[in-house]
Structure of Methyltransferase-like protein:
Amino acid sequence: MMRTSIYLSRFPAFFLCVAFPLYLAIRGSASLSDIALLCSSLSERAEALHIKLTSWLAASPAPISKTSLNPLAEPATGSPEGGIRKTYQPLPDGLAHCINSFEQYSLLAEQGLQRKHARYSRQNPAQKTISNKLGYPAHFEKTRKGIEVNARFSEKIALIGREDYHTGSRALEDREDAEFGLVDLAFGHLLRDWSSQGAGERKAVFPPILDRLDQHFDGNGRGNKVLVPGSGMGRLASDIADLGYDVTANELDYGSILAYHLLTNHTHSLHQHTLQPFVTKWAHQANPSSRYSPLTVPDHWPNKAVQLIEGDFLEVFPRDGEFDAVVTLFFIDMSDNVIDFLSNIHRLLKPGGVWINLGPLKWGSYSALHLSAEEVLQLAVLLGFDVDHTSRKSIDSLYAEQPETLLKFTYVTQFWSATKRG
Ligand SMILES: C[S@@+](CC[C@H](N)C(=O)[O-])C[C@H]1O[C@@H](n2cnc3c(N)ncnc32)[C@H](O)[C@@H]1O
Ligand SMILES: *[C@@H]1O[C@H](CO)[C@@H](O)[C@H](O)[C@H]1NC(C)=O
């Protein structure tokens, strides 16, 4: 079956640069210069991606179906010329989707821009004249440049994914379509964890956790094992390691994992990578320039002593009583059943070990139980924790928020600590 990734790369190129402008020209609603502006860099980018994808195709056999996969990383059979058949190791869940999304960011983002442009173009001539006086058309140009900046970064992450998981140059099987939201979320997490613009957000939630650790271990990190499940882009884990603790991070989502690989294995200077994550966000802006704010990452070196364990928190830690502390930040509500997460935290702690939690209780449609804070703490007691009620407090916190936006979601997060009885 032909992969969506390939299909996607051709169709928008045609649509964006031929069909759509033609349609606009016929309707007479867009000036020729608008169209030229729109198409110049779009076609370059689409072409580049198209060439890249077609050269992969030329270099590799038809996309491989799940059933033909065989757990060998290396070419299995092959004839000397042409028709070389490779077999590849099956990829972990979600990885192909993630790599495809990073690879196709520019096309997906540009489709969004096209939709905005279509609505802009449908204005009558008088409205367009006024829009021009506002300098509005410049937004399309500037946004396109920002998308280019982001695409370079995004494609770098995709390449790292291909290298680190030995995918070769084949088109990747993906049960879902490439997803703009996945990349956008990764950009948000980079902002939160590794940019100076994220410092305010971190300052609200990290210190209570670090102070509680400090209290529990009398300011002595050395030799104490701390687990941070659902570590996201890993900044909290890194900051805990900076204090001397022996830190294990755990994450499931390849958007975060691959970006973290980029920061830890492929970065040689601070602020090396630039992105403009807000260029696709046109609402809630106070002034015309704030959406073009660049972000540079990382603002601090990720601590390389942190060990990242990739996979499901419920599956990847076979050994009981391994940790002196478990720290959960915006994590426990991600569970299908919070009883499983809390039981697992309890199992992984040594007797007397501490669980520190900070987060909202943002249960999703996947959650079996939608507990209140009081109920979560009652559950903790039932599972064998002693809750430290004096530690409890509410802390207002943003999450991966654009610093200059006019709309901010504040979580009233719940902070507590508890120790394993016994
Ligand atoms: C809301 S995010 C918080 C990330 C990070 N702690 C922060 O505060 O920025 C929750 C994270 O938990 C991860 N996650 C969800 N379920 C998981 C599981 N079963 N095992 C490991 N990670 C999981 C998600 O992929 C996501 O990165
Ligand atoms: C790159 O970095 C991650 C996280 O720091 C690590 O787990 C991984 O093994 C590293 N190397 C490769 C080749 O993936």
